[in-house]
Amino acid sequence: MGLANLSGQCSFEVALSGGLDSTVLLHLLCLARLQLPDISLGAVHVHHGLSPRADSWAEHCQSLCANWDVPLRVERVCVETSGGQSLEAEARCLRYQAFDRSAAKVIVLAHHQDDQAETVMLQALRGGGVKAMAAMAGLHRRGAKWLWRPLLSVSRSQLEDYAREHTLTGWMTKAMPTPVGVAICCVTTFFRGCKNRYRNIGSTCAGLPV
């Protein structure tokens, strides 16, 4: 799903964590900006404050965006559980509220094929029904904005290959999972083990209907 699917939408903001996935995504859109000068491109980094390295991630994103001439918006949020909601769910809710405050019409997310498959597996482990296990949509309307996930057909290994080819280095990694990502980390580890044996598991899970 390319920019042609978003004809008429000229303002884009990349959700930038500072990791490999969003770094590659931002680089791709910077290249697209050279061919489509009418595009307004920015980035947003949501500072959850849940990791001792959270400030370092924000600083890395600021440096990266300065080097690539991309305006960056840093949103600091305070994650607190309420009403029985988990840290993971609360952090996600605050993250999407930060996206809602964007001046851009399209929020671009770096979810890729492996994320798609892991989402399906996580919902299955939680006991979700068919609807709950539906894959993420490549293009989704959220209020007055669009959420666009252009990398859903791209695997993590392909993103790594792209980063090597374009000498993209220095992206941030999580040394240890935070409380927000413990369940996801377990699923990710399991999924990567499955990939070693079942090569097509990523595309199979990711191909479930939305």
UniProtKB/TrEMBL annotation:
It comes from Paludibacterium denitrificans. This is tRNA(Ile)-lysidine synthase. Its EC number is 6.3.4.19. Coiled coil: none annotated. Belongs to the tRNA(Ile)-lysidine synthase family. The keyword Nucleotide-binding applies. Ligates lysine onto the cytidine present at position 34 of the AUA codon-specific tRNA(Ile) that contains the anticodon CAU, in an ATP-dependent manner. Cytidine is converted to lysidine, thus changing the amino acid specificity of the tRNA from methionine to isoleucine. It is found in: Cytoplasm. Pfam families: ATP_bind_3 (PF01171). ATP binds at residues 17-22. GO terms for cellular component: cytoplasm. Transmembrane segments: none annotated. One of its GO terms (molecular function) is ATP binding. Residues 13-168 form the tRNA(Ile)-lysidine/2-thiocytidine synthase N-terminal domain. The gene is tilS. Keywords: ATP-binding, Cytoplasm, Ligase, Nucleotide-binding, tRNA processing. One of its GO terms (biological process) is tRNA modification. It is an enzyme of class 6 (ligase). InterPro entries: Rossmann-like_a/b/a_fold (IPR014729), TilS/TtcA_N (IPR011063), tRNA_Ile_lys_synt (IPR012094), tRNA_Ile_lys_synt_N (IPR012795). The keyword Transcription regulation does not apply. The N-terminal region contains the highly conserved SGGXDS motif, predicted to be a P-loop motif involved in ATP binding. It catalyses: cytidine(34) in tRNA(Ile2) + L-lysine + ATP = lysidine(34) in tRNA(Ile2) + AMP + diphosphate + H(+).
